[in-house]
């Protein structure tokens, strides 16, 4: 039986995150820890399990699209296997990444934790939280004059009514009430501003209410069910904009350095994704002191060694990543025997893996281009055309100064400081690799054919 092209195309969707809780997605997962230089999921997990009931707060980062969400899905699965109740959510569902404050993050966490606990049939009695929501709804309704939002629609509440702790089916739901607020806040800058004016001065009180009425209650009830504890994984916070926040601070520094003490006060295990720029910021040491450890950086899959020679183990792992999406029910050896159904030669597949630079989303983008243009088996000629198109896309965004920086990175294998990060890593012009405890940088392989790299002009 040949390749199911429809299934293969869907499995290679660059915007799809593998959910390892799903048996189908689990068939596509490849463990890259050996060729990334470390097993960060194991390190995150050990920190949680060794700490037992003592709360931990860890930071996780890496390039957008390098596989962080998939690895966090693996962390969730392994922790659930160990008996933890894990609340995983994508913060982009609740937050406007261009404008985020601590109260926004805490409300999103409260919403997702309460929703998960309600689904697990744990009993919550959030009396203080109910009063907080009532006062917030009253404030929004009383001060909304002039905004382009109808008063009765603010957060779904009306003055004098009970807070919206009942969902549409009439069942008691704290998550529903908080969700009404966060949805309105995400959709309206004006509502968001009013909400913060009310909540920011009360942050310490909000933290205490979340801890006492949600987290402590959850941990007590989970212990009676022989559960190991509560873990919250907040994904996609690495996507917050690096925009100025006032007083010379940018949004990531403001949230995780200036306000980091509040983010780590939740009385459960928490993992936050954070922007990679913080690893290159002058505030990195302050961040490390604030949280007790530096952010864990997920490197690329190593397709080359530091001396530029091919990394056979990395290339082999990337081959399996693609082949598993075409032949999910076969063994690694059986998949390799069917390479000819996808590519005109093994060398063409390896050329594709090398061109990705070990960035998993880049690999999916390239194969997605191929699938849109032709049916397999894909030829070397088609692949070269696709790589050329990607080169054209990338070079449009590179200015004269950045070409100079790229030539220097190509020579030294280093990137230093926030300025170079902004120019090179954020735009995926440069990738970070790790081996035997050493870190180095290399250009996105697609750029290596650019004429501008061959000249100092």
From TrEMBL:
InterPro entries: KAP_P-loop, P-loop_NTPase. SUPFAM superfamilies: P-loop containing nucleoside triphosphate hydrolases. It holds the Pfam family KAP_NTPase. It comes from the Bacteria. Keywords: ATP-binding, Nucleotide-binding. The keyword Cell inner membrane does not apply. Residues 47-243 form the KAP NTPase domain. GO terms for molecular function: ATP binding. The keyword Acyltransferase does not apply. This is ATP-binding protein. It comes from Adonisia turfae CCMR0082.
